[in-house]
Amino acid sequence: MSRICQLTGKKTSVGNNVSHSLRHTKRKFFPNLFWRNVRDPETGLIFRLRLSANAIKTLKKKGVL
Which of 1, 2, 44, 59 yields a CA-CA distance of 20 to 30 A from 32? Predict the structure, then answer.
């Protein structure tokens, strides 16, 4: 399963670990993803989505979750 938010499109990004001696090694930054059941307001169907924490917060603010 890919680490991509199905609503916002957030995905894994890359960067560097920087040690105290300023040595750079590659690392990955993973999005904060969770499985959530989301009900479609129009049809009433329930979809199981993999959403980022930011997307969940937005859906709660809009009243979908």
Answer: 44
**pTM for the complete prediction?**
0.82
| Domain ranges within the chain, ordered by starting residue | 13-62
Q: How far apart are CA 52 and CA 3, in angstroms?
A: 10
Residue 63 has pLDDT above 90, yes or no: no
Residue 64's pLDDT band, with cuts at 50, 70 and 90, is confident
Assigned CATH for 13-62: 2.30.170.40
